[in-house]
Design goal:
Radius of gyration: 19 Å
Largest sheet: none
Number of helices: 10
Number of domains: 2
Distance between the termini: 53 Å
Shape: elongated
CATH architecture of the largest domain: Orthogonal Bundle
CATH topology of the largest domain: Tetracycline Repressor, domain 2
Helix content: over 70%
CATH class of the largest domain: Mainly Alpha
CATH superfamily of the largest domain: Tetracycline Repressor, domain 2
Low-confidence stretches: none
Amino acid sequence: MKKNSQADRKNQILEAAFKVFIDKGYSKTTMDDIVEISGLSKGALYHYYNSKKDLFLSLIDHWEVYTFNNFYKKESNDRKASDILRIFGQNVLETLNKKKYAYIAEIEFWSLSNYDKDIKDRSQRLYDKLLNLFEKVVKKGIKQGEFKELDIRNTAMIILAVFQGVNWFAVFNENSVSPKDYIENSIELIIKSISK
């Protein structure tokens, strides 16, 4: 029971930090801001996190689970590689529609990665995990004869770059192209170019 209580409190802190960091940015956020939004005491906050930076580093991992939890839960063993890419695209669109601020947070992670080695390293681990995921999908497509022989890592990077492009829609009001059209057309273009 105590473990759940601790996990709940940590999640409460991370959710509050998420909101504050998105609203104010990292540099203007204080631990007091997070205390106020979380409804917990300052002591509780410092019990779990030694500093704002420590909390922010944990938030990068929380961001991944928070943003893509539905995708990781889906069974994909019996799906074609192209369908897995389409499902991931649907998940990205769903996240953009329901949790647009998650992409704003990602931009904050990128920005801080330029100035802080710890944040860069933690962000790098996240992106390596995503690239590895896409590499597995591409390998599956090649193995099953759906995709032609190609540079797996480079193809995974291209796929990741397409999904990263959705950040544009989180920041700017693009009227000529919808996020749905962007994601769906980009995925289909990739699938067409790598299919046998």
